[in-house]
Every structure is written in C-alpha cells, then in structure tokens.
TrEMBL record:
Classification lineage: Eukaryota, Fungi, Fungi incertae sedis, Mucoromycota, Mucoromycotina
All residue ranges annotated as the ACB domain in the record: 1-85
Gene Ontology molecular functions: fatty-acyl-CoA binding
Protein name: ACB domain-containing protein
Biological process, per Gene Ontology: fatty acid metabolic process
InterPro entries referenced in this protein's UniProt entry, alphabetically: Acyl-CoA-binding_prot_CS, Acyl-CoA-binding_protein, Acyl-CoA-binding_sf, FERM/acyl-CoA-bd_prot_sf
Cited Pfam families: ACBP
Amino acid sequence: MPSPAFEQAAKEVHDLTSKPSNDDLLKLYALYKQATIGDNETTKPTFDIKGRYKWQAWEDLKGILPVEAETQYIALVQELKTKHQ
C-alpha cells in the first residue's frame, strides 16, 4: 500500500504550473509504476513509439523495491515543484 507521502506527491505533480520535460515525465511514469505495481511484466509495445519509451523507462527500474521507487518518486516531485511552481 502506498505511503501517505507518496499519495500526496502523486496529487501534487498535477499542480505543477508548467509541464516537466519528457525525460522527467518518463521518470515520473516509471517510478510510479514501479512503486505501485513492481517490476514490469508486460510485453514491449511494437508499433506504439510513446508506449515503447514508457515501457523501457519502467523496465529500466526492474529489481528496485517499490518502497525505494516511492522514495525516488517523492524526491523527484519535490525537485519538480521547485522548478515548475
């Protein structure tokens, strides 16, 4: 079950005043998935380019414990809040 701090960070990311870079968005996506689901066990998309980037970002986190992904996600959201608010 996600921590209250993680759930709060997941809400705060939607309040950023400007859009983060694509790299930051991929990191957020992958960390969120790793924290909430765990290792990527899905099939790599074939023709969906955006989906392939998202899949690979999540795949690159394979083996990281969900609690560690939560910690990294919270830290990234805090960093983005300073840049985009």
